[in-house]
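Changelog note: in this version the structure field was regenerated for every chain. One regenerated record is shown below for reference.
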Amino acid sequence: MDEAREVRAHGRSGPSNPMRVGFGGALAAICEAGRVTIQNAKLSPGDISVVCAGLAGTAQPESQRKMSRLLVEEFPGTVVHVCTDLDLTLEATGDGPAIVLIAGTGSAAVGRGLTGQIVRVGGHGPLLGDEGSAYDVGRHAAIAALRDFDRGMPDSPLAARILRELGCAGWEEFHLRLYSVPDEVFPRIFPVVTAAADEGDPTAQALVQGAAADLAWLVADLLERLQLKSEKFLLVKSGGMLGGSVYFDKQLDERLRLVAPRAEFGSLLVTAAEAAARLAVRLLPEAEEGK
């Protein structure tokens, strides 16, 4: 993006959450996206004044500082700003009170109050949270299937579908796959669960209902902290869990309307990447002062 906020080019690369792919992997992904974008814009690295990276996994100050140091080394002579992916989604809502619910591999919510205060809830990762996320749904579905297996019971229709989707001959093979790549296994189970829920499978529907309730509680917690319960505000849903299942989308909307009856459902005004670029443009005066 240039100083007039015109998008000059786009680039794309792999995952960049340092808590999941490591700081080296995250840095490589960011640099690759930057390299492609600079080439597409027919620019050189020296033309770049500000880099803004909104990354999952950088909410902790030490992670943010480490990522910043690495990016400063890779983009010398630029102002580097590292924030979280949640910061970008909130930036992409525009102005005024708003809450963004993230429902994807992980789960979290971020909100802006009437006076501009920003509060985040959730987003603690699979070991400490991510309630209602695709990872969480997949984990609960696998636990239920393994309990039946331990009791010597035959696989339920849902359990059989999970094994087929993962290409596993049985639960012993599932174990081997799981402990080598858990971040790939559990999220892949989520669409299996929602497909079964759409077809009326009671076990799958119970899992989906639980996920919808957990996600809605993230919004309820933010409403309390931001004192928005009696106010109108924008509520935006974002993430890979959305739009693939009629049953899940309906359950989530119903739960959200219960906890946030005055919310006005909407969508992000720009992409997260463009929101990052807009934040970068705001830092141009700082970059100019440093020259």
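Spot check on this record: The mean pLDDT is 91. The longest strand covers residues 98-103.
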